[in-house]
Amino acid sequence: xxxxxxxxxxxxxxxxxxxxxxxxxxxxxxxxxxxxxxxxxxxxxxxxxxxxxxxxxxxxxxxxxxxxxxxxxxxxxxxxxxxxxxxxxxxxxxxxxxxxxxxxxxxxxxxxxxxxxxxxxxxxxxxxxxxxxxxxxxxxxxxxxxxxxxxxxxxxxxxxxxxxxxxxxxxxxxxxxxxxxxxxxxxxxxxxxxxxxxxxxxxxxxxxxxxxxxxxxxxxxxxxxxxxxxxxxxxxxxxxxxxxxxxxxxxxxxxxxxxxxxxxxxxxxxxxxxxxxxxxxxxxxxxxxxxxxxxxxxxxxxxxxxxxxxxxxxxxxxxxxxxxxxxxxxxxxxxxxxxxxxxxxxxxxxxxxxxxxxxxxxxxxxxxxxxxxxxxxxxxxxxxxxxxxxxxxxxxxxxxxxxxxxxxxxxxxxxxxxxxxxxxxxxxxxxxxxxxxxxxxxxxxxxxxxxxxxxxxxxxxxxxxxxxxxxxxxxxxxxxxxxxxxxxxxxxxxxxxx
Length: 498
Fold this sequence. Notes:
The protein is α/β, with parallel strands linked by helices. 49% of the residues lie in helices and 9% in strands. The protein folds into three domains: 2-12 and 22-81; 102-211 and 351-472, P-loop containing nucleotide triphosphate hydrolases (Rossmann fold); 221-328.
């Protein structure tokens, strides 16, 4: 009967006009556990009641029974205080784990279960809302335990870089076990053996804690469309393609930069790097650069509009295009960027951005600096764009792309990547402060497409009215009948006689 009293009691009824206080789950659980322990002696007395003498039976039996029922009633009443009526949003009480899921524990002992992160995840929350601490870091830790490779964009380097390194150290036994299973499977099939997961770190401020990488690696650039997209990524992040600007100037700048990239890729692959391309675009003798590009038919085809303009004596127009591009490119022509992005692969420097290669899975953390974001964002965006193109393919190792403060970089076509990444086992986590930043980076239409393609959505405290209204409209409303009572006293007196 006491056990029934513990588990069967419901929440207390709400009194009209009196707001019900919310119980503290941690304190209630401690009290319930304490009462449950106190119920043990009373239960033992009843269990061995046949060993008691008659005079003891008259005292201990009713006392133990009464104490047991009373403590069961108190414990049940306290447990009932934690129960709420079926109204509003509630957390899941059970842990639902899948081979690739991530699960977040809540303060009330429940769980937020995300069984399929490959469907994309959106995290919106203002500064100080706890995005990285409550979602970002646990997510990185759980993905490390499950052996996922991928890319982390660490805007406030080295916050997430340190979390990723710690996660990999803690997950080392599990990762080794997963690698041993993959090696055994490869040997049984007579296939090449995969390498263990490696963590690479790239940043442009601390040269003692960075490796080198080349996003323009010729072997990772099979056709000219790759070069076109990389040129667009750099120019867009430099801010030269302002909305409403001259379309001729914008497209000519894309074509000029693309032709230089493709010329180096075909003729001098050892110099096909961002610093070499930038240095060539900044070269003072434009005629010499165009003559060089004319030696390669594909490169000349991309820069044909500029070549024809020079031949038709329209040098001023071409000079304006190139000068606008050079003014923007000067920003990324720095020693640190040049050192990090020019690896000597013959000496073993650098690595491929094919991060989810089944034979060589890698986790890349690329760091930015909030005070120098306008300088580093163009090259970081180019690294991210290169990695995404190589990762979003079939038959690869399960991976993820985690973009913290994602609106600080612009990646062309990012809004449609989550739609195709799901089937390729690439989980995208897009974390930013509010929708206004997303609109500023991608425009209102692409912002809507991106949000609609990110199916798992988390919302914290936001300061943007537009974002708050979006969340409110998406969750919807639920009507509930409320009863209120008012009372008053008539202070009027009886009238006297005339």
